[in-house]
Amino acid sequence: MFDSAAARPQGLAERCTRVLLSPWSRLSLLVALLAAAGTCVLLFEPQRLMSDGWPAQLGGAAAVLVFAVAYGVCTTAFVPRPLLNLAAGALFGSQAGLAAALAGTVLGSGIAFGLGRMLGQDALRPLLRGRWLKAADGQLSRHGFRSMLAARLFPGVPFAAANYCAAVSRMGWLPFLLATGLGSIPNTAAYVIAGARASTPTSPAFLVAMGFIAVTGLAGAVVAWCKRHHLRGR
């Protein structure tokens, strides 16, 4: 009698553990975390850094480090990177701003990739039945570094979407982070320089940066259009 009574709570605990650790429970947790992060962004409005400036008590390397961490968290919460890159240039100048923005980019990508891999991959991989989804998954799984490098160089794929798509695929951590860091340099640098030189919009540096942003944006749109028609033709 005692053994039977003791087994029931133990069996209940095991079932509850299985339910809490099931793929769909973890996916629900991921959705809740992202929704909470998005809500915090709407409430606290980090974009006010553009107008209000950086807190006076923070300066030097500490300010750059704190900004990089905040940048990474904000990208996970779907804050647009162009806005953050402009803020980095406006607050810290071209060199320190670029360092902060790139560090935040890699950090935010790593956070999103880790969350997607741990909480979403097991639930979402069985749903990859569509032709486009299978093609994207196969490309990222077999040619992860090359595919992610192209996605970062040409801003046709939303940054957050690329993070979570890579997490659901079988792409490794190291290729993902290396491709993100290297591929993000040109576009990030252009936005940071534009932010740093925004007070002199007729300067050559500002005009070159804006021209680069326009050209890469157009190139990204063309690549996305060609890729779409290529997949349709399969």
Any overview of this molecule?
The chain is globular and about 65 Å long. The relative contact order is 0.10. It is 81% helix and 0% strand. It has 11 helices and no strands. The model has no long low-confidence stretch (mean pLDDT 77). It has helices at residues 2-20, 23-44, 49-52, 60-76, 81-124, 131-142, 144-153, 159-168, 173-183, 185-196, 204-232. It is mainly α and 234 residues long.
As a percent range, the share of helical residues equals over 70%
Number of helices: 11
* Share of β-strand residues: under 5%
Radius of gyration: 21 Å
The major beta sheet can be summarized as: none
Taking all residues together, what is the mean pLDDT? Answer: 77
How do the helices and strands follow one another from N- to C-terminus?
A: HHHHHHHHHHH
Structural class: mainly alpha
Number of strands: 0
Residue windows where pLDDT falls under 50 for at least 5 positions: none
Terminus-to-terminus distance: 65 Å
Overall morphology: globular
